[in-house]
Amino acid sequence: MSGGVEIPVRVVDVEQATQTVKRFRLAALSGEPLPSFSAGAHVVVTMDDNGRRMRNPYSLIDRADDGSTYRIGVLRTPNSRGGSKFMHERVNAGDQLVVTMPVNLFPIVRTGRKHLLVAGGIGITPIYAMANELRRRSASYEIHYAMRNEASGAFIDELRAAHGDRLKLYRDDMQEFVSVSQILPNQPLGTHLYVCGPEGMIDAILKGGRDAGWADENLHSERFLAPAGGEPFSVVLQRAGITAEVRSDQSLLEAIEEAGVDAPFLCRGGACGQCETAVVSCDGKLVHNDHFLTEEEHASGKKIMTCVSRLKGRELVLDL
Amino acid sequence: MSAIKSRPIYPGLKVDERAKRHLVAAEGEGALAVLEAFADAPDAWSRMTLLYTPGGSAPANHSETLQGRAPDAFHLHPTRQTLMTRLNALLDTATMGTRLYAAGVEGHIGEVVAAGLAHGVDHLSIRTEHRGSLARRVQCVHCKGFIDDVTISPVPCAHCGVPLFVRDHYSRRLAAFQGVSINAETPDEVPASEELYK
Amino acid sequence: MTIQFKTETFRDDFTFSNSPEAIHRFPFPFDKDEYMYAVNIEQHMPGPVKSAFEFPIDIDEHYVSEMKDRALVLKQDPLRCQSLPHMITAEWDLLELLMESMAKNYPEHFTLTRDGDSWHWVNGPLGIDQKFTFGDTSTLPYPPMEYITRQCQGDFNLIDQRNDNLWMDAGIVTTQADWSLDFDIGMNFMEWHAPVPLAHDIGVFDRALKFLLNLQQGRPVRRLNWTMTINPRLDTSPENYHKWGVDRTTVTPENVGNKVHLRVELQALWRLPRSNAIVFSIRAYLIKMEELVTIPKWGRRFHRVLRDLKPELADYKGLTRYRQMTVDYLSKFDDGAPTSPGFFPD
Question: Domain B21-130: which topology?
Answer without folding.
Answer: Rossmann fold (3.40.50)
